[in-house]
Amino acid sequence: MGEKKSRSVRSRILLIVINIASLGSLFWALRGAHLAELKQDLAEMSWWWVALAVVADVSVYLWHGVRWQTLLRPVVRLKYWEPVRAIYVGLFANEVLPFRAGEVLRCYLLARNPLLPLSVSFTSALIERVFDGIWLSLCIILMLRSTVFPHSLRYLVDGAYVLGITVLVLALALGVIMFRRHETRAALAGEIGWRRQLHVLIDDLEIIGHSRSLWSSFLQSLPYLLLQIIPIYGALRGYGFDLSIGVAFVLMIVLRLSTIVPQAPGNLGLFQVVVRETLVKVYNVVPAEAARFSLVLWGMVTLPLLIGGAISLAVTEAKLSELQEAAKAEASQITNSRT
């Protein structure tokens, strides 16, 4: 009980620190933004481009549903709306809850299907992240070869290298586990603590791997990533910036990199900093306009997720807090239930 209370206190302190840092980042990003002009900016926007951005933003996660459905095909034949609903509830949770709780929640919701073990759902989400990381790393290489970043944005370049190395290590580890299962189990003999958890992971990877669906979902991960460029490009053009789709490509990458850093729900704060700094220091956009645009872009990519998530949550006929507690309880039992 004491250890549990201590973890709870540490989590609360960390959450407070993260929220303070995020609020500080938001105020810093909006310095000199002339927010009084934001109303006029919105009135002058091209709403055809805004509509394109919103539709594309929704389409990203509809495609995500296809990919997740494909990845889990060797385990269970899911109806299309099952993964889509879980994804949108998870996105909604990420926008309103700390520590990206939606990742656990979406896996739990999908695993309410009696034919899908929760541990397999978690493993499939891990595979998705590795696939995303591989394609994102390739996009980063292209970005670094075509875009010059000033020294003040060196942290983005360093973060790109860290991501690339991390993804490579994870991909190699998962490859070894999937295709050398028996050797890996022998090397990790024992059923205590972290070894038991690794055995669960090995078994789940064996279930999902060795299938055409695995490679199909890997290929589907590229359009899933590239689709995320379109909402940003639509927002740029709708706001009135005459910038190329290559700028949207770069913004997509740096925003994906920024999500690695712990931050407030909805990515509020760091999102605005990254957008403003990239537009100002790489593409020479007027700082005040870049700052106001960072708010507009955040709203355009966040509001559809909140609306879609709220609808999906209503369909589940459950409260978010109840789902979160149930997901935590189920996740804590995975190791004990799989021996």
How would you characterize this protein structure?
- The chain has 339 residues and is mainly α.
- It has one domain (2-337).
- 78% of the residues lie in helices and 0% in strands.
- The protein contains 16 helices and no strands.
- The protein is globular, with a radius of gyration of 21 Å.
List the helices and strands and how they pair.
Blueprint: H1 2-29, H2 38-44, H3 47-71, H4 81-96, H5 102-110, H6 118-146, H7 154-179, H8 181-187, H9 194-208, H10 212-226, H11 229-239, H12 245-258, H13 270-283, H14 287-316, H15 320-332, H16 334-337
> How many domain units?
1
Number of strands: 0
Q: What's the assembly state of these chains?
A: single chain
Q: Largest sheet, described in full?
A: none
Average residue-wise pLDDT:
84
Strand content: under 5%
Q: State Rg.
A: 21 Å
Structural class: mainly alpha
Helix content: over 70%
Number of helices: 16
**End-to-end separation:** 25 Å
Order of helices and strands: HHHHHHHHHHHHHHHH
Q: Which segments are poorly predicted (pLDDT under 50) over 5 or more consecutive residues?
A: none
Inertia-based shape: globular
